[in-house]
Amino acid sequence: MNTTIIQVPISKSLRNEALREARASGFSSIQDAIRMFLQKLAKREIGVIFEPKPIKLSPKNDRRYAKMINDVLSGKVKPYVAKDVDDLMRQLHGENN
Question: Which residue range forms the structural domain that includes residue 78?
Fold first, then answer.
């Protein structure tokens, strides 16, 4: 078998946490888990998505934005609807006032 070695420097704490989770998932080692991941990735059987963590609002801002949403949904506040792209750009630049 024609093999190669991939070296990735990581902290000992990350290695230990990953090993603990790999074993809990049934792998005998981190290498086995990484090997399986790479095989699945190479065959396009899995995808990888990196998403930012959601923003956690303070209770005060959470209430503020909830009120704004309720005002729009209840019809109390009418949202601006642009007629076309130029109209939207004028609104965004404050030129429709």
Answer: 59-92
